[in-house]
């Protein structure tokens, strides 16, 4: 997050148009909205005092701090070692204690089986590779990590309402397939995630959360520029993705960066 904010301090030219940097006040607006988005999800988890909590897929200090504040003893498991190292620095800098950071794949976790009371993920599933099978392997790995009677809770974006972000996720998923030949689970209908949880868990409950706008996110996305993976494609394919990206940017300029609805699902480990 801070990296993004620092990045924004520069003037950016995107698609021939200048994207003015966010002012301090605008950055505060954006941050405020992000905190309320995070709180809205974490509040569904309830009181975490005395619980061993696994945060699976992601190391955002905002989420980690929120879990610690709710009383959890938190382990975060993230695939990308670079993100783990950056999070370690951010937690130190912000004085957030009580989080164990682990680098690894959630499907082959370097963690003791049945060592958590709650496994929680936020925004992980749409980024999983291996499509439906990847999502099943992930949920069954989480089941093995949680003590019988413990809980698994996940939230992720769904395509229930049209949104620019859903289009961006599709573009990134197509790019991923083009480069690595792997299908992502992606952003799909809520029923798919509910069925997935029902296959592995008992007492499944879910809740749809309406899109949560983040003020000024449109300018942040525009200023970040096209996904850098486009540069790794052969020229003809790169041109195709570049056109899609430019169309997406025009849409963002017209209607803003509209956000998807989120589905929260939780259930008990048998
Ligand atoms: C959209 S982000 C999650 C945002 C989240 N709120 C956070 O705290 O960062 C998804 C994260 O899941 C990670 N991820 C994707 N596949 C994974 C896997 N198989 N095992 C562990 N982490 C994974 C990605 O590297 C990325 O950091």
TrEMBL record:
Residue intervals of the Methyltransferase type domain: 64-153
Pfam families from the UniProt entry: Methyltransf_11
Domain of life, per lineage: Bacteria
Molecular function terms from GO: S-adenosylmethionine-dependent methyltransferase activity
InterPro entries noted in UniProt: Methyltransf_11, SAM-dependent_MTases_sf
Listed Gene3D superfamilies: Vaccinia Virus protein VP39
Protein name, per record: Methyltransferase type 11 domain-containing protein
Species this protein is from: Rubrobacter xylanophilus
Phylogenetic lineage: Bacteria, Bacillati, Actinomycetota, Rubrobacteria, Rubrobacterales
């Amino acid at each position: 997050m801070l990296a993004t904010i620092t990045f924004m301090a520069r003037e950016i030219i995107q698609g021939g148009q200048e994207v003015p940097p966010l002012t301090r006040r605008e950055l505060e607006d954006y941050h405020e909205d992000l905190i309320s988005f995070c709180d809205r999800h974490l509040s569904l988890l309830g009181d975490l005092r005395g619980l061993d909590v696994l945060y699976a897929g992601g190391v955002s200090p905002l989420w980690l701090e929120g879990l610690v504040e709710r009383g959890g003893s938190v382990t975060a498991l993230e695939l990308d070692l670079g993100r783990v190292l950056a999070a370690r620095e951010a937690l130190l800098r912000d004085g957030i204690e009580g989080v164990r950071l682990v680098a690894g794949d959630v499907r082959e976790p370097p963690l003791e089986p049945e060592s958590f009371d709650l496994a929680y993920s936020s925004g992980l599933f749409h980024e999983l590779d291996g499509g439906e099978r990847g999502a099943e392997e992930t949920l069954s790995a989480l089941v093995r990590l949680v003590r019988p009677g413990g809980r698994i809770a996940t939230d992720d974006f769904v395509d229930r309402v049209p949104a620019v972000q859903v289009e961006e996720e599709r573009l990134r998923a197509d790019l991923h397939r083009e480069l690595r030949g792997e299908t992502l689970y992606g952003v799909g209908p809520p029923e798919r995630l509910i069925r997935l949880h029902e296959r592995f868990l008992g007492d499944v409950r879910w809740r749809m959360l309406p899109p949560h706008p983040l003020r000024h996110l449109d300018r942040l996305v525009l200023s970040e520029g096209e996904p850098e993976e486009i540069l790794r494609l052969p020229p003809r394919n790169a041109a195709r993705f570049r056109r899609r990206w430019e169309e997406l940017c025009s849409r963002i300029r017209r209607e803003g960066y509209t956000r998807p609805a989120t589905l929260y699902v939780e259930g008990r480990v048998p």
